[in-house]
Amino acid sequence: MNRTGCTIRRIQCGTDNCYIVAQGNAQEDEKEGGKACNAILVDTCSAAGYEKVLAACSEYTMKLIVLTHVHFDHAENAARLAKHFGIPVAVHEADLELFESFDRQPLKSYGLVGRVVLGLSLKVLRNTTVEKPETLMTVREGDDLAPYGVDAKIIELPGHTKGSVGVDVAGSSLLVGDALDNWKCPATGHLYTDLEALRNSAEKIRALGERTLYYGHGKPTENRFARL
Questions:
Q1: CA neighbor of 224 nearest in space, from 50, 213, 165, 27
Q2: Which residues contact 39 (CB under 8 A, 6 or more apart)?
Q3: pLDDT for 78-106, tens place per residue?
Q4: Taken in order 56, 174, 164, 216, is the CA torsion positive or negative?
Q5: Which of these, 159, 170, 165, lies nearest to 211 by C-alpha position?
Q6: pTM, to two decimals
Q7: Residues near 207 by Cβ (< 8 Å), separated by ≥ 6?
Q8: What are 136's strand-pairing partners?
């Protein structure tokens, strides 16, 4: 739990992560006989992880789903989970086109790690359509998530996709999506639609200073990562 009382719970589904950000601790609330604490879900993993994500979310009073971007490994369960919990799904406007087709924003890569990850991902990306949630809303830089029960704000981190965003939790933790990754070591994200924008987003994260970083892929680390 960080200094403002928020907890961040990492849910691993294979090589992918999604996160529950809660104002409090669900287990402690239950022990005290209270109602499960308010929470948001950041990303949803792919369809294969649905039951695992659903089970974890069911321990909380879910208020919102935030998608860092609209690729299947982050967004494939969004519509189904939103319908189950009766909550909205937040995404940046620039990523709405990805609900129609991944090809609207083709990916490129750098380095050996990037080439391997892109090679493994392309076939699935091109053959997987992410269902567009019925309760969709758009977010942008600085949007406050306090109305959904957590001390957090949206930060724009374009480059991996045009509309990639992160979630800054209480000024002490940052969920970065794929703007950065931690496949082997913390680094600027290896896949991109716009390399210059991606580099700028990485520097934006670096400039925030002390934060615990939570990646779409890999274990959390402190805010220190390799330059591209």
A1: 213
A2: 20, 21, 22, 23, 26, 57, 60, 61, 62, 63, 149, 150
A3: 999 999 999 999 999 999 999 999 999 99
A4: negative
A5: 170
A6: 0.93
A7: none
A8: 89
